[in-house]
């Protein structure tokens, strides 16, 4: 194995790599144990690829560019400018809290496994409930990528052909077509991973600077008062300034979610106890800085706000007013779509591994089917097929609702934040409880005395954000413009409770952390 070669090389150099040695022993045990549940994955992702995986998966400034129309109607510039900074700090607290747990117990199951491990009681119940929420959150998050790309394609089609009138089913067909690529590519994902992420990271960074420089040099400038003191609360129907500002946060909070995607690739990351935490925190910090810088630049160079806000995809008019060139506008917007598309490959791989891990622990009905790993490809083929089917079904929402795009953005954000909350809550109580008989099995990344404060800050941020996610973006609320994120999350929770009562409490196996010595910082 590659891991064994790493350990051998380290020993020859006179060094003892305890983490790599432990990982090699664990992999040997995992092969034996997982052969009974369908097979095991293989480690091949190195440190650079692990960081690139999260960095490209989030693609935060691109996602914010494609969704900032929500903030134009609610909150306006003040929501985007201050919200970007607020979201960056809050998401970093969450990522740091989860990174500490990833260092203790690096596992594909991540959130549901940690909830089952650290819950004070009813471990199996909380593990199963967390598993359903996390799997649902990631399937919805996976749906948001083709939704963003399809809206960019339709927006550019309207921009270049003003007579084109898009139908809702057009977007659904485009989403289906887009889903084919990462599904097929996952069969050769190992060979495609490094070059694809390298290209993605290059475009992600290059066009970030190109966009900021182009807009800063060519666009008409907004005033400082407009960017930092304009709070919009009279467009969407929400008159309360606080509510409008809170709903507008969706634009800047949604793009920073998904940093835990690399967690669900843990079984394929070498030296995962140090590399996965480093990847998560690095990705969040870099993407938060890039998103804040980009969105503030857009606000200073937005041009005619009425023209921008009336466009199907407002970011198109921001570039067009600045450059006055259709080819240049097409290039910049197409690159945004390309990065989101490349990110889709990573998201698709991540959610398939999560679904496979949950099935391996008998979290789903018919778990043995989805827990299988192809012996030659080393991939969870059945889990990949299930994810693709779920995406195609969710894409049908476009046909029935004009608010589908809003649902594809707010739903994954709401579900992911809920999935982050419970493991952080449980580890927070565990670390401040002096009477617990079992000490916390700290890993090489440990927050120490700052841990309780970071955990508490992360939870407060999550609660605040989750309050606003289910709100409809426009009033009065109708069946077409309603935000279905809240009811859908409620339906998943009810469904998980039913599963627990019917068979889940007997079927689900509480994951047990792999044996490991304690590591100090």
TrEMBL record:
Keywords: Membrane, Transmembrane, Transmembrane helix, Transport. Its main location: membrane. The lineage of its organism: Eukaryota, Fungi, Dikarya, Ascomycota, Pezizomycotina. One of its GO terms (cellular component) is membrane. One of its GO terms (molecular function) is transmembrane transporter activity. It comes from Amniculicola lignicola CBS 123094. It is a multi-pass membrane protein. This is Amino acid transporter. The chain crosses the membrane at residues 131-159, 171-189, 201-219, 242-263, 284-303, 331-358, 379-399, 405-429, 450-471, 483-502. It is found in: Membrane. Coiled coil: none annotated. The keyword Transmembrane applies. The keyword Transmembrane applies.
